[in-house]
Design brief:
By secondary structure, the protein is mainly β. The protein has two helices and eight strands; from the N terminus they run βββββαβαββ. The longest helix has 8 residues, at 69-76.
């Protein structure tokens, strides 16, 4: 009797449309939700999956967060779910580190160009008013001047 089967690891990019404020670099960015899992295959046909884990990869600095499994399962089912900062746990640092107001580390050390949170900025696209310490519009994602 010949048995052709095995255990492998797989991943799948899930459909998620939304922007998040990255806790690592402080930027508002698009994110990619990825599900990883192990699966058993028999004659090259995957039969069942287990140990599903969900991750969020940010487009701004490429930081990777582990996502709350309940939220990840809801996204995998196709539900419209909002990811909150409480649902994320940093597992891999990003490539670029910025300060609280989107400055580079050199600007943070020099202390120059600190935005005034009392000032308001108006988005040139959607006309939404945001505090002066925002770099991007929270409504449409357009870069603010």
């Amino acid at each position: 009797m010949i048995f052709i089967g095995g255990i492998s690891q797989g991943s799948k990019i899930l459909q998620y449309v939304g922007s998040l404020m990255c806790k690592y670099c402080g930027s508002l960015a698009q994110c990619q939700v990825i599900m990883t899992y192990y699966y058993f295959s028999f004659f090259f046909i995957p039969l069942f999956k287990w140990n599903k884990r969900f991750f969020v990869k940010m487009s701004c600095c490429e930081a990777v967060y582990e996502l709350n499994p309940e939220v990840g399962r809801a996204i995998a089912r196709g539900e419209q779910v909002e990811i909150r900062n409480e649902d994320l746990k940093l597992v891999e640092d990003g490539k670029r580190r910025y300060g609280a107001y989107g400055q580079t580390a050199a600007q943070d050390q020099q202390g120059d160009q600190t935005p005034d949170p009392e000032k308001t900025l108006r988005c040139p696209i959607c006309k939404h008013e945001s505090p002066g310490n925002f770099k991007y519009c929270p409504m449409c994602g357009q870069r603010l001047q």
